[in-house]
Amino acid sequence: MTEEDVRELVSRLPDVEVVIASEANVAPAVAWGDSFFTYHPPDSAERAHSQPFATLVTQDYPGFDTASDLGRPGVFRVNVAVGRETFTALFGHSPAAHAGHAAEYDYAVLDRLLPHPVYAAQGWACVLCPGEQTAAELETLLRQAHALAARRHHRRESHG
User: Of 43, 44, 84, 151, which one is least surrounded by beta carbons within 10 A?
Assistant: First the structure.
């Protein structure tokens, strides 16, 4: 999958807003070129509280997120908020327990589903350069993360 394949796949899901960070949308320079996918129905006023359910990052964030070595040519990472239950099913330990397992993972390996190197404790997973081994599973996880974001959104709006 290419970066554009991922953007197209996610943008086809209902009520998804895709923002590619840039100077024009006042994003921090370190994030320029990265994509953020949020669930945001057009009739909703809840934009301020919308958090991405997935992101696509193209470079390391110095001093914060460098374990994936995204400075390699053509390497990008798709990050997905899979939630606690799915995270535990995928990796055999809870997000809260991830710190004790972090050394078991090579966060720079391509085309393998991994806990997110920084946000695993929040139930995020990732794939660097999804390909033959992970594309189908990644697509399923993106759809599930979208559905989870939609449920959260509607729950907040009904209690709001």
Answer: 43
